[in-house]
């Protein structure tokens, strides 16, 4: 079977039904294959499936507008899934399969360790096989190294990095004058280590009066019972926890904290998602803080319309975790391809460096220096649905996040030490 025919079949399989296929009729050219390499099995499969729903919707939205116009022909985007199980070796095998299948745009995010491995492999591939060059669009791997010492011309990050997210949380921590003791806990890999390192640094600058009474890393995705960890947290006298944990490592952590009776605050990167609000329950009201590029309770009719459209596409409440940055990423890619007039990687990358897109009245731009997307950030505080400022809950949990801080893109921006090597 030739690549074009196989890609067409992949596009049909990825469409999940007639609506996308019907829309694709407005884009009759050969589909543009996109390869999502993500953990769709294993301990973080729920996070992988949440990513897929967001990316699928982003693809559908582009295709509903007629797809991408290249050389006078409109072509639909075609999303195909590749399961990495969250492991480096499987991700690298998936990358090779995706390239063999004709994909020239790779999408990944859940795991900075996997992202770093993909960057190295893509660098080698693009040097050795210039006719099969690929671009890497990163929507969630936020280790700062990816746009600093490990920055790559072929890599573009659309999520705020860990330093940006921590700086947003610090705006709230800085004003919590009753806080005097914090506990740091995270996943023992590149991202988790970077979060705790930056927490220590920023606390030293913003709140030198706050004592760090615990600083602990745990195995990634392998802890089934966090009660021993939370017992130590409670015994330390900590009034708050700072963590970058995500997926089940966050859900199980907050469940255990509730079991042992810890009643302090959680300052989180992902406390608003993937089962965490339901796991925390009433104990999190007024106590759990999260940071994101956007939240459903962002004030304004544009935010409400955007979220209601996602709810309509995925009516099951447990599936209603939407990430605006993935919509921005797909819009930016479509824009770059159209402006390049080709799928050739260098030409598209040169245009992607100049991307400027607006989704739900939120505008973001790509910083060419390091390929870090610059966008507003918000910090939210967990409340019951129906409380002032909380129209929507998270994933049908009954709990939502009231936006308590809004950072402009300029306020969220952080410096970079990237020294990018450009082709040619």
Question: Layout of SSEs?
Answer:
Elements: H1 3-14, H2 18-24, E1 32-38, H3 45-64, E2 68-70, E3 73-75, E4 77-83, H4 88-100, E5 105-108, H5 112-128, E6 135-138, E7 155-157, H6 162-173, E8 181-187, H7 190-206, E9 211-218, H8 227-235, E10 240-243, H9 248-260, E11 265-268, H10 276-280, E12 288-292, H11 301-313, H12 324-340, H13 345-352, E13 356-359, E14 362-367, E15 372-374, E16 377-384, E17 399-407, H14 409-412
Parallel strand pairs: 1-4, 1-5, 5-6, 6-7, 8-9, 8-10, 10-11, 11-12
Antiparallel strand pairs: 2-3, 12-16, 13-14, 14-15, 16-17
Care to give the gist of this entry?
By secondary structure, this protein is an alpha/beta fold. It contains 14 helices and 17 strands.
Descriptive labels:
single chain; 424 residues; alpha/beta; Rossmann fold; 2 domains; seven-stranded mixed β-sheet; five-stranded parallel β-sheet; globular; disordered N terminus
